[in-house]
Specification:
This protein is α/β, with parallel strands linked by helices. It contains 15 helices and 16 strands. Strands 9, 10, 11, 12, 13, 14, 15 and 16 form an eight-stranded mixed beta sheet that branches. Strands 3-2-1-4 form a four-stranded parallel beta sheet. Strands 5-8-6-7 form a four-stranded antiparallel beta sheet. Strand 10 and strand 11 form a beta hairpin. The radius of gyration is 21 Å and the shape is globular.
Length: about 400
């Protein structure tokens, strides 16, 4: 295969998983990041090229020029893959330029950004009859009274722009228990010039979180899909997947496929749902408009999302396929799962016995691959270096 795949971001395991999923089929993979230090995906034997380019946040125009210059040197338009939300927003913003030089799944300017934005996503979901958690906006009249009457405490203060919020506060949201805490959380966000919404907590432990992972072709039709159930996340209760299993839940297809097709979505999407433990209803929480944390699990379960996109965009679409049975497979990001387990046990949400019992399942690892071990060793080296620096500073 001559058509290259350009992967934006290799300093996290999502980018690494995209590289591996494509290279095993002979696709030339070009990993792009803004720094070499700490970028453990660069160490993969599956990387055909590694490039250092401008940061998409600090110098997006520079990155556009960098990517255009690279594409002009190729015989065919490369396929472009974002590995993080920031890169999704970057491609969405500069789509009119990038689509002239790259093959990309999205064709409607701004759609990916709208479904990533919590506020606009909730409006779209409501229009299409999909349940979302009750929400109050801080600019509504008498919003405090509405919080006390409709939302109730504890509740969540969530950002409209998740990447910007995480970059600022290193967490996905604020959980508040009183009106005073709510006011403080809103002030923190507004002082940082970030929009937030106030949302009801859907009752249920972390294992009530589910995902619908799907690929939609250029006709906006679901061609490949599977569903998963979270078991643990980090930070606990409101974080990212660290221990998640593939679980066939047909209701999620019924809700998720129709919604994505109705809004004209194209490419890969992961809808996160939470099942209300009291009513059994599924609430849409958010959409990941790029390759997911669970990509290694999806691949091991038989759905290679990056390669599906590559094949369609290069003119050789794959046959439709769905995983409609339980494989028993789990995704495991060991480093953050161990941090999560400590907090689950400390807060009495899980016992050590329950945790140990859960590990007795075949795994799809976030970073480790015996056929491609160097990225895992580089990752461990980065963590040990940080630890040594921390200890050295403490002893000075």
């Amino acid at each position: 295969m001559e058509t290259k795949a350009v992967i934006l971001g290799a300093n996290y395991y999502i980018g690494l998983s995209i590289i591996r999923c494509l290279a095993i089929h002979g696709v030339p993979t070009v990993a792009v990041d803004y720094a070499r230090k700490g970028t453990y995906g660069f160490h993969s034997k599956y990387c055909s090229e590694t490039l250092i380019g401008p940061d998409c946040k600090r110098d997006p125009d520079g990155l556009v020029d960098f990517l255009v210059d690279y594409a002009k040197k190729q015989n065919d338009k490369p396929v472009l893959f974002p590995s993080a939300d920031g890169y999704v927003e970057f491609i969405d913003k500069y789509l009119s330029i990038l689509k002239n030089y790259y093959l990309v799944t999205q064709t409607e300017h701004g759609l990916y950004t709208r479904v990533m934005d919590k506020e606009s996503l909730h409006s779209i979901a409501k229009e299409h009859g999909v349940l979302v958690p009750e929400t109050v906006h801080i600019d509504e009249e008498n919003f405090k009274e509405k919080v006390e009457q409709i939302i109730k405490f504890p509740c969540l203060v969530k950002p409209a722009d998740s990447p910007a919020f995480v970059s600022k506060f290193r967490k996905k949201l604020f959980k508040v228990y009183t009106m005073e805490e709510l006011e403080q959380a809103i002030k923190k966000a507004t002082d940082a010039d970030l929009e937030v919404i106030i949302q009801r907590i859907i009752p249920g432990f972390d294992d009530h979180m589910y995902t619908f992972d799907a690929y939609l072709n250029q006709d906006a039709k679901v061609t490949h899909w599977l569903t998963c159930q979270k078991y643990r996340q980090f930070p606990i209760n409101f974080g990212a997947s660290v221990y998640t299993g593939q679980k066939f839940v047909p209701e999620l297809y019924t809700i998720g496929a129709k919604f994505l097709e109705d809004i004209g979505y194209k490419g890969f999407a992961e809808i996160e749902f939470k099942k209300d433990e009291e009513t059994g209803e599924y609430y849409l929480i958010e959409i990941n408009a790029r390759t997911t944390n669970l990509n290694s699990l999806l691949y091991k379960a038989g759905v290679n999302m990056p390669y599906i996109a590559y094949c369609e965009l290069t003119g050789e679409p794959m046959e439709s396929y769905a995983v409609t049975h339980d494989t028993g497979l789990v995704f495991w990001y060991a480093y953050e799962d161990l941090l999560a387990v400590k907090d689950y046990i400390r807060t009495g949400q899980l016992t050590l016995k329950e945790v140990l019992k859960s590990y007795n399942r075949p795994k799809a690892y976030a970073i480790w691959d015996p056929k491609d071990p160097k990225p895992a060793f580089a990752f461990l080296g980065n963590k040990l270096e940080r630890l040594f620096r921390k200890v050295f500073k403490l002893n000075r």
